[in-house]
Write a structure and sequence with these properties.
- This protein has 301 residues and is an alpha/beta fold.
- The protein contains eight helices and 14 strands.
- The protein folds into three domains: 3-46, no CATH class; 60-234; 240-300, no CATH class.
- It has helices spanning 20-29, 73-80, 96-108, 121-133, 238-247, 250-257, 261-266, 268-300, and strands spanning 3-7, 10-14, 34-35, 60-65, 86-88, 111-115, 141-143, 157-162, 176-178, 181-188, 196-200, 218-222, 225-229, 234-235.
- Helix 4 (121-133) crosses helix 5 (238-247) and helix 5 (238-247) crosses helix 8 (268-300).
- The radius of gyration is 23 Å and the shape is globular.
- Keywords: Membrane, Transmembrane, Transmembrane helix.
- The chain crosses the membrane at residues 238-259, 271-292.
Length: 301
């Protein structure tokens, strides 16, 4: 059922009412109160995605490209200018050819961004751990289905929010900081709007004079272990590093079995747990042997 909203006198139509957090963002960054008491005969604005034009702010943006655009003139132009764009990691199984294509983009300066699905938060943790193991450590997460009230409950980090339709009210086009979270509004191929935006697959002739990088870094939980990816390093526990190392086993296993990426990751946790346990046992055995050898050596002396 469609809902009419009054946003600073602008009538908008969405499928869901904004939660308290999103309303607070509008009040803080747009100085706007959102009212749901709207007369049915009032005509709404055609698209809620264009409302940033009513809240003027100097325009700044950052580009993200999908894998199929890595050979596009727009991507090559941005790389040639020394700009580091985001590269959206595939959400499913990808072949070695695609992997090396992404790896080469990262070598050129591209910054990995992982897709986040609200319905499968555990899948994001598994995928981020897997991507870290193969040298594609994500520094941000992209959510394509619009604002989710549960995002504030996730580990700290940068979350880029894209609203692909009018079902949800878009984020304000500002750099939004909420506790240890950073939220950014994203649009595809958009050259309009005000304030700060992330633009997915921008056109080849877009102005590059107002590029500004977002706050980079994202955390996730996997198998009850916290991972924090920063522009400098991955931070986790010793067991977390073992999980990253053990996940490399999944790559040849995936090729041999021909499994799809999501199916593989659904069993990733249990398989890596056994691998980590085995590695831990081997390391403990090596430690015990080295201690015994040292004792014997000291005893003979």
């Amino acid at each position: 059922m469609a809902i009419l909203l009054n946003v600073c006198g602008l009538i908008l139509m969405t499928q869901t009412a904004p939660d308290v957090t999103l309303q607070q963002f509008y009040q803080k960054y747009y100085q706007c109160h959102i009212d749901t008491n709207v007369q049915p005969n009032q005509k709404p604005w055609p698209s809620s995605q264009d409302i940033s034009m009513f809240f003027p702010e100097p325009r700044e943006w950052w580009p993200i490209f999908t894998v199929d655009q890595l050979n596009s003139p727009g991507y090559k132009r941005i790389i040639k200018q020394g700009i580091k764009p985001g590269i959206l990691l595939p959400n499913e199984y990808f072949r070695f050819k695609t992997y090396w294509k992404i790896k080469n983009a990262v070598y050129e300066g591209a910054i990995p961004v992982a897709l986040f699905e609200s319905d499968h938060p555990y899948y994001f943790g598994a995928k981020a751990t897997f991507s870290t193991a193969i040298g594609l450590r994500p520094l941000a997460a992209l959510l394509k289905t619009g604002w989710d009230p549960n995002l504030n409950t996730l580990p700290a980090g940068t979350y880029i929010i894209q609203s692909q339709n009018n079902d949800t009210l878009p984020l304000p086009t500002r750099e939004i900081q909420s506790n240890q979270h950073y939220f950014y509004h994203a649009q595809e191929k958009s050259e309009q709007g005000n304030g700060y935006q992330v633009i997915i697959n921008p056109s080849a002739d877009i102005d590059l004079n107002n590029i500004r990088y977002p706050h980079l870094g994202v955390s996730w939980n996997f198998n009850h272990i916290l991972y924090t990816s920063t522009p400098i390093e991955i931070q986790t526990s010793l067991l977390g590093y073992l999980f990253i190392f053990g996940s490399i086993v999944v790559i040849p296993l995936d090729i041999i079995l021909g499994s799809h990426y999501p199916d593989l990751l659904s069993t990733f946790g249990s398989s890596i747990s056994w691998i980590s346990l085995l590695l831990g046992g081997v390391l403990l055995l090596i430690l015990v042997i080295s201690i015994i050898r040292r004792i014997r050596k000291n005893g003979t002396n």
